[in-house]
# Entry
Amino acid sequence: MSVDSRRRPPSAFLMPALVVLLVGTMIYSVTVGRYDLRLLDVLSILWDNLAPGANKSWDAIAETVVEQVRLPRILAAVLIGFGLAISGAALQGLFRNPLVDPGIIGVTAGAGFGGTLAILLGIDGYGLLGIAFAFGIASVAVVKFLASVGGRTSMLTLVLAGVVISAFFSAAISIAKLLADPFQKLPAITYWLMGSIASTNYGDVLLLAVVIVPAATLIYLLRYQINIMSLGEERASALGTPIATVRWAILLATALISAGVVATSGIIGWVGLVMPHVARALVGADHGRVLPVTGLIGAIYLLAVDNIARTATTAEIPLGIITALIGVPVFAVILRRIQTHGGWRSD
Amino acid sequence: MIEIADLAVSRGGRPVLADCTISVPDGGILAVLGANGVGKTTLLLALIGVLRPDAGRCMVEGRSGYVPQLHDVAFSYTVLDIALMGRARHVGLFGAPRRRDYEVVHGFLALMGIDHLAERTFNTLSGGQRQLVMIAQALAGECDVLILDEPCATLDYKNQLVVIELLHRLSREHGITVVFTTHAPQHAVEIASHVLLLNGAGPHRGGPTGEILTADNLTALYDVPIARADFAGGARYTFAPLYGTGAP
# Structure
């Protein structure tokens, strides 16, 4: 009788376990890198910030490495992984499409172009964030418009519209690169677009926190509405959900997260696509459980990827390259699974 | 109570339905019949307020619950997750279902006889079970009028009976007004107090089942000869098409 009798592990145990794992990975990550640091020294330095003591058993360089180099970078990785994974889960629910993430529906490319334009014009910080956000939200609006026919959004057209918009903005980025000063701005743009958090400072961390924390909170508050939206807009409307409000709130929040990430760290793709699938396998489909779990897993994942990025080779590998190398094969596997299970609906 | 008068509705800019009139009292059951593409679903979408009438009146007294045609859902929600979504009107924009919502939903799952399936994955259920879950979802909104789009379309005879008997029980015991579309006149014969025949060519006919659901009207409706067969001295009857293809 019982086809699917496997019970999900209660998220009551999973959430604390993930939090512990995240904190553990963060502390471990401080010790990883070219400058050798002992775990005990790292813990002492961190503890010293909370409760300043008299005797310091470590040298000043170690303290600078921990507090000024590695800690901001680790905090950035956690925030970015958390934000991208949550926005991916929200967009997948909203578009009832497990193949969606901010990169696929064109937000990232739009924000990337906005960022490039800002660098070209010599704008940085919150100005760059604003321009990236404007182009990010504009590209979602265009994708949504292209994909909707007669009030319905087809899953396939949505992905195709995202491809089209991404291609357009890639071309626009190329034009911007052509126009850029080849000695100063071009290398900056090129390296930045690859996605890296190597030079993150506390200002960047603050910027990330300012956009990601409120946007992720808004998405979490809409968790039950996202469940309903994933039945389709006509259906959600019949159940009494204010579909336009929910849709635009989610699109704005995810565009804001993408713009924040792009503004500080360039284009880091594929995180939002893969993590929600892992979360759903652990806690089922209900977004009330999926969103927090996917955020924590995303944070741990990006932290682990960043550790690889800064230790695998002598020269640092941009983060976006590694997330793409991992994400693309996983995307292919998910695509195959969806096709074989017949889960792809055309409306 | 439902009152539809001279209703005209368009869908996607194309006029689909015109001059449609019927009224059903509280606790009544209306069966809507008609050929494919004649506007049955459009009528239902107008009833639940998703489509606006171009002309005429379309009034539903009380809160309506809608059960669309059966299909898979995008993610592996449990039966409980799906049924809880029916509480949308009772949960705030930023809220999530609370204890009372769970109680109401479990109550309706029990009423459907499927509370033991609550933790099962929706997409792994049989068509009949899924239809009951979708009805539980609509009822979870505590509706007075239940509107169903071809609730028996993909079901076998036994499951059709389960759904039809359930609709009858909801109307008789809980006073819920039911509107459903179907391609089987027998469903209307069994439980409908009123029938609306949506005719592509001629005028639509609506009224009490005994008056409207006749072999002549059905023949005109489907453009196929349809005969009535009586059983048990006329106490029970059914309609069947006589295709006349010349086969033995």
